[in-house]
Amino acid sequence: MKKILLSALLLCATVLGASAAKVLINPGHGGYDSDDRGISMPLGVPMFWESEGNLTRGLELRAFLTEMDVNYSITRTTNTSADDLNLTYIATLSNNYGGYFMSLHTNGGNASANYTIAFFRGYTYSPYSQVIPPSQAMGLALAKEHHNHMITNETYTTPRSQSDYAFWGWNYGVLRTNSRPGYLIEAWFHDYRPETLRLKSFMYNK
Predict the structure, then answer these.
(1) Is 9 helix (H, G, I), strand (E, B) or coil?
(2) Is the Cβ–Cβ distance between 36 and 73 less than 8 Å?
(3) What confidence category does residue 88 fall into, taking pLDDT thresholds of 50, 70 and 90?
(4) Are 185 and 105 in contact (CB under 8 A)?
(5) Tens digit of pLDDT for each residue in 165-182?
(6) 50-67 vs 2-16: helix axis angle to the nearest 10?
(7) Residue 112: strand, helix, or coil
């Protein structure tokens, strides 16, 4: 995990200069609200919530940045309804902070896919059309390290960092008005049952 995060941060420092290194961490969702992702589990296992794993990974990233003496801010440190911030407001926090932006998520699909993909803010249907350089390169560096050190099974094995607009036809809410370099990372698919169980593990998320 530390090697994965270090690769992304070293790329940031190389592109924009180490003195500019500060990061806004956004653990996605929060508060077990309607926009959280809940999945019922078998055999009495407590329900899966995307917000929980996102927060664990966000707090671990915060600890790593502290160890690396990198300045950071984080959009939430607990998991309540009050933490479930408006997406445009999160983008405003990122713009005001003026660092790199990392939004942490897991994905959901048809319960048969499992892979990692980084999304950056795009503006055309070209998969690499980035609004804010070097977001595409940052996301790709992370996706490659994630793939190279995977401890799970993948159903799509080519690391990708892609324009959100090209992929979906619209921009993610946290990226739409965000003027900072960065990405939204979808780290695995939480509705792929073997991965759902892994993502219930505190140590696995770390």
Answers:
(1) helix
(2) no
(3) very high
(4) yes
(5) 999 999 999 999 999 999
(6) 60
(7) coil
Amino acid at 119: F
Angstrom distance (rounded) from CA 168 to CA 125: 9
> What is the per-residue pLDDT across 18-55, written as a single tens digit (0 to 9) for each?
445 899 999 999 989 888 999 888 888 899 999 999 99
Contacts of 147 (CB under 8 A, 6+ apart): 116, 154, 157, 159
- Whether 41 and 47 have beta carbons less than 8 Å apart is answered as yes
Q: Provide the token pair at 101.
A: 């932006």
Torsion, Cα 49 52 58 61, to 10 degrees, reads -110
Residue found by looking up tokens 């950056």 in the block: 120
User: How far is 94 from 115, CA to CA, in rounded Å?
Assistant: 27
Beta pairing, strands 116-120 & 160-163: parallel
- Asked if the bond preceding 134 is cis, omega within 30° of 0, the reply is yes
CB 172 within 8 A of CB 184: yes
Crossing angle (nearest 10°) for helices 2-16 and 135-148? 160
Taking residues 144-162, report their average pLDDT.
88
pTM for this model (two decimals): 0.90
How far is it, in rounded angstroms, from Cα 95 to Cα 47?
Answer: 35
